[in-house]
Amino acid sequence: MPPPETRLLRLRPLPLLLLAAACSFGLPAAEGGGGGGGGSCEFSVARGGELYSFNLAAPTAAHRHGVLSEDGFYKVAVNDSVLWFQLCDEMIFNFDPPVCFNCEDCGGPLRCGTQCSALVSNNIGGYDVCTTIGSLSKSHISLIDENNPQKGVVLKMFSSRCSISVSILCDSTVAQVPDKFILFGRCDYATTIRHPSGCARSVSASGSGWGWLGTLFVTVMGLLGGYILIGGIYRYYFLRIHSLEAIPNLEFWIGLPQQIKSIFVPSTRSRASYNRDDQGSYDPVNN
Prior knowledge:
Layout: H1 4-11, H2 13-25, H3 27-32, E1 42-47, E2 50-55, E3 74-78, E4 81-85, E5 118-124, E6 127-134, E7 139-143, E8 152-158, E9 163-170, E10 182-184, E11 188-195, E12 201-204, H4 211-237, H5 250-280
Parallel strand pairs: 9-11
Antiparallel strand pairs: 1-2, 2-12, 3-4, 4-5, 5-6, 7-8, 8-9, 10-11
Helix pairs in contact: 2-4
């Protein structure tokens, strides 16, 4: 029986290989995460051979939280009505929280405004009454102008019976907070802000990234990593194979480089043999 130190050295590569397989198994998730529509504030659309991508929560040079308000909320007051909202997240109030009735579905009276993304307060009979008008889980992004993606996007949020539409106009130089809002119908609000996050990143839809070849490569690597990971765990813990032989089809993986090499080597050998045979049919000339 080998000494404990030798046995430990023989076992160490196995967890490392299983870890590498787990990492490769996670590649498809990492690749897919960057695509449009992957989050509540990500949006992509193709127009005229170009792919326009928006990520409203991504940091910019001057705004580390993207379009999100660094205060935790935006606030707009018009007459006796006050509108609070946050983009891409729920609101946070470290100061000046809403004080109103009927806030049960957005944090309750003690934490009013902290469990929704948009809230409006209207003075009714001398009392401030709140209504939840938007939730992070119920949101939708669309273009302001379907023919001009560079103009910006509209982020619309819903509650059970109300909504708020925030138009985010592209402005690469300044960020301008809203100073007014419009009420449509009974309980549908709209406002506008200007922000660099409203500007799209455009790339050629036909030549961006690896395309289908990259997707195929990542998918194959993910499936291969999953096969090695699951097979290795099964053989290591259930079949009690505590060595590198726990890797499924270890002989195949060890011999794979040689098999690949043999595909190209025979043709080289055959050409060399053919040249030698041609030269051997003639006797050397002695001077």
